[in-house]
Design a protein that fits this description.
With 97 residues, the protein is of the alpha+beta class. The protein has one domain. Helices cover 37% and strands 25% of the residues. It has a 3-stranded antiparallel β-sheet. A hairpin with a 2-residue loop joins strand 2 and strand 3.
């Protein structure tokens, strides 16, 4: 899987409420939320810049009162264990808007 840019994932997040607004109604069995947006696999050469960018963006969202979560996994890169983002978890359509 190729890593998605921050702009591409945030665009996916912003577009989802338009496509799923009906399922956000109070019918839990039909709910499209929460939703996990995949980030993709980050190449070793891009780890430092990409990971910092994702953490900075999530911190900015939290500072703005948006309740999102960055899901991470550990992987070995250049002989060291690294924590890398895998998904952005958005709890509601309101948080995505």
């Amino acid at each position: 899987m190729v890593v998605k840019s921050l702009d591409r994932v945030t665009g996916d997040i912003r577009r989802r409420p338009d496509r799923t607004w009906a399922s956000a109604l109070p019918e839990p069995a039909l709910s499209a939320w929460p939703h996990r947006f995949p980030v993709g696999a980050i190449a070793v050469e891009e780890l430092a810049g990409q990971v910092r960018g994702w953490y900075r963006w999530v911190r900015e969202q939290h500072d703005a009162g948006v309740d999102i979560e960055l899901r991470v996994a550990t992987r070995r890169a250049e002989g060291a264990i690294q924590t890398v983002p895998t998904h952005v978890s958005v709890p509601t359509n309101e948080a995505a808007a």
